[in-house]
Specification:
mainly beta, five-stranded antiparallel β-sheet, 2 helices
Length: 174
């Protein structure tokens, strides 16, 4: 027989720079003319779009986002802390047995479990520029029996099964 275990822990914190809409973006003021693809109207540059042509969901997302630190640029105009944590555990068990000179068997069991937490760089329900919580569980079994009936005849039976489970959930929901 043989058994092993591996544990992995990673915890890191850092600063992340992200791009957020400026005050003009939030007010739907763009420095180029905007054409409405469905209605066909053209709205002149540097004038606000009418709220009636903006999808309500887009307005909600814009209102949920924090204000940018620098309103003059869209590039890296917001920063904040981001932490990342991964805890992973892996275990294996290997069994071999010789029942007689003609019959032998083996079994292999393995499991890996990983829990990951990645916080977003943009806080709030409309931020979510990260994976949030990720959970992974993999389990596997492989087994077999070998029967040597004669010097020329061999019978083998093998069985294997695996069960993966994984999922993600955002931090700001639920």
């Amino acid at each position: 027989y043989f058994a092993d275990y591996e544990g992995y822990r990673q915890v890191s914190k850092g600063v992340v720079f992200v791009n957020l809409p400026t005050a003009n973006d939030r007010a739907a003021i763009f420095n180029v003319p905007v054409k409405h693809q469905v209605l066909g109207g053209i709205y002149p540059a540097n004038t606000p779009l009418p709220r009636s042509v903006i999808i309500p969901f887009a307005v909600k997302v814009l209102n949920d986002l924090p204000a940018a630190f620098d309103q003059t640029t869209r590039a890296s105009n917001f920063f904040g802390p981001r932490s990342f944590r991964e805890f992973a555990d892996k275990a294996n068990l290997k069994l071999d047995h010789q029942f007689s000179s003609k019959v032998s068997a083996f079994a292999r069991l393995g499991q890996r479990k990983s829990n990951i937490l990645e916080e977003p760089g943009i806080p709030g329900p409309s931020g979510g520029d990260a994976n949030g919580r990720t959970g992974i569980l993999n389990q596997a079994l492989a087994s077999g029996v070998t029967y040597a009936a004669t010097a020329r005849d061999l019978v083998e039976v093998r069985f294997g099964v695996s069960r993966p489970r994984a999922g993600k959930s955002p931090l700001a929901v639920g």
